[in-house]
Design brief:
The protein is globular, with a radius of gyration of 14 Å. The chain contains five helices and six strands. About 35% of the residues lie in helices and about 20% in strands.
Length: about 140
């Protein structure tokens, strides 16, 4: 991610610290990556390392810790990914589920770092962003590119 994006996130969380959790050790992130069976993008691992888990704009970004303002079931991307996989949501077998939309559709990160949504109503998997940074900027923070 660009330095500017990290700086924007840091400022966002400085204003609303309850929207993020705490740092996570890189070894714990690596173990979670193995458990989910998806290679995590470097910027997502760095996000978890810095913030644990968070609400960015109006969307949750699941990590390995639950931010104060997140729901009880949003404690980790491992738990959320497992839930959607058990429900057989298309695409989730190849993703780490990192967020949800307003309708409860899972938003996933694939091994190439692309961000997808499995839309229940449309019965389709759709590409949202080419990477986590663009997802955060466009969908969560509503920033210009």
């Amino acid at each position: 991610m660009r330095k500017q994006t990290w700086q924007t996130l840091d400022e966002f969380f400085a204003d609303s610290p309850e929207l993020k959790s705490e740092k996570v050790a890189l070894a714990e992130i690596a173990a979670a990556e193995r458990e989910v069976g998806v290679t995590l993008a470097a910027d997502y691992k760095e996000f978890i390392h810095r913030y644990g888990g968070a609400i960015v704009g109006r969307f949750p970004i699941f990590g390995l810790r639950r931010a104060e303002e997140m729901g009880q079931d949003d404690s980790s991307f491992l738990k959320v990914t497992k839930f959607y996989r058990e429900q057989h949501w298309p695409g989730t077998e190849k993703w780490a589920v990192i967020s949800t939309d307003y309708d409860g559709n899972p938003v996933g990160l694939d091994a190439e770092g692309k961000v997808w949504i499995s839309d229940h109503d449309a019965r389709a998997i759709q590409l949202l962003s080419s990477n986590l940074e663009m997802y955060l900027r466009e969908w969560c923070l509503k920033l210009p590119d």
